[in-house]
Design a protein that fits this description.
By secondary structure, the chain is an alpha+beta fold. Helix content is 54%, strand content 18%. α3 crosses α4 and α3 packs across α5. The two termini are 20 Å apart.
């Protein structure tokens, strides 16, 4: 009876050590990632004599989800790649860029997620500029009247990217608990 308990304890200890070693091996490649954000106001020029809001605001709020989706498009990613001082593929940029509308506002936030803070900042900046240029070009080609133009204003340019540290502690605890369950 004592020998079975002894072997069981040895097995649990070895399993725990192996789980911790495997977790450390997996985590050795984990890096801190960085997010850089650009806040953009989407607006239309105010027409003399027209009330604030109204049809202009409704149109903008209807178009914002489209602009949010355009940020992660391949065509925006290609324009970003052409304006960066470092080498990256359009697919990598496409996976790095995201956007969201701040609920019930005319504000969208473009975010770039990268392993290098300067690259994140550059991609977010280039992504916002690519979107603005693309919408301007589309409006020009469609010969949109000046009073109906959609105008983008950068409220907050991409500053230093904020860090997203890896969750090493949580992963270590989960590995230890998993090993103990064995």
């Amino acid at each position: 009876m004592i020998t079975i308990s002894f072997y069981r304890v040895i097995f649990v200890v070895i399993a725990t050590i192996l789980a911790i070693v495997a977790t450390l091996y997996i985590l050795r490649g984990s890096e801190v990632t960085y997010d850089a954000d650009v806040k953009i106001l989407v607006d239309q020029p105010q027409i003399m004599g027209s009330p604030a809001g109204g049809p202009n605001l409704t149109k903008i709020l209807q178009l914002l989800p489209t602009y949010v989706e355009m940020v992660s498009s391949y065509s925006v990613a290609e324009k970003v790649v052409n304006n960066l001082p470092f080498s990256i593929t359009a697919q990598e940029v496409q996976g790095s860029l995201s956007a969201k509308q701040i609920v019930q506002t005319q504000i969208m936030v473009i975010t770039a997620h990268q392993n290098n803070p300067e690259n994140a900042k550059a991609i977010a900046t280039a992504g916002s500029q690519a979107l603005i240029d693309m919408v301007k070009r589309q409006q020009s080609e469609a010969m949109v009247k000046p009073q109906e133009l959609i105008v983008f204003s950068i409220l907050e340019p991409a500053n230093m990217a904020h860090a997203n540290p890896p969750h090493k502690t949580r992963t270590m605890v989960l590995a230890a608990v998993a090993a103990l369950l064995v």
